Amino acid sequence: MSTGVIIALIVVGIVVVVAAGVFAARTKPRGGRSLRSRFGPEYERVVARHDGDTKAAEQELTERVRRHGSLHTHELEPAARERYQARWAAAQERFVESPAEAVTEADLLIGALAKERGFPDGSRYDEQFEALSVHHGPHVHGYRRVHLAAHTHLDGAEANGAGGGTGTEELRAAMVEARALFEDLIGAGGQVGRRDRTDEAADRATDGTTTRHERTSPLKGRLAKGS
């Protein structure tokens, strides 16, 4: 074999190795700032759950990206979007008379909507939540909160025979926070919940003395005041 051929083979080998390294670097989930940016507040919650062990938390989040990062979702058809918007609006209206039922419906609705978008089935909540956290990290906590509130109420109702274990204020805050993820999943043109429906309904359910001025003030301000 001539010297020229040997050199050519060496060059080709180097090119292949470099290309493989670049591909691996691009597809491998990166930690630190990359994970913080992708997961938003979920990053800090996982770190806290690992008692401040950043390395363990980033290993968990990196594993989530490995499992669900390549998941392909699809947009909703206009008719499906309208159907989900109508269901969410109905759940908001129901909050006035039955906050617990409204939150349970919101939990089920987000699970069904996520499944229709291409995420794992809502009956496998943990798996679905992890996949959602990879693609909707900044807002996924709303789903966790409404799911926990719904199931805490159901467990409390079974234990107490009726009442339920979650206060109305917690149910209201859970449903309001879950709306951000719902709007993310609805997609383009999917802003939902007029202020006078979602928030006034919640106000009437939690405080019969709320003034009209308070009902028209920003929702986040009221949550901060009540926390």
UniProtKB/TrEMBL annotation:
Transmembrane helix found in the keyword field: yes
Give UniProt keywords alphabetically.
Answer: Membrane, Transmembrane, Transmembrane helix
This chain's protein is named Secreted protein
Q: Which parts pass through the membrane?
A: 6-25
Q: Lineage, please?
A: Bacteria, Bacillati, Actinomycetota, Actinomycetes, Kitasatosporales
Superkingdom assignment? Bacteria
- Bias (Basic and acidic residues) ranges: 193-217
Q: Does the keyword Membrane apply?
A: yes
Task: Spell out the residue ranges making up region: Disordered.
Answer: 190-227
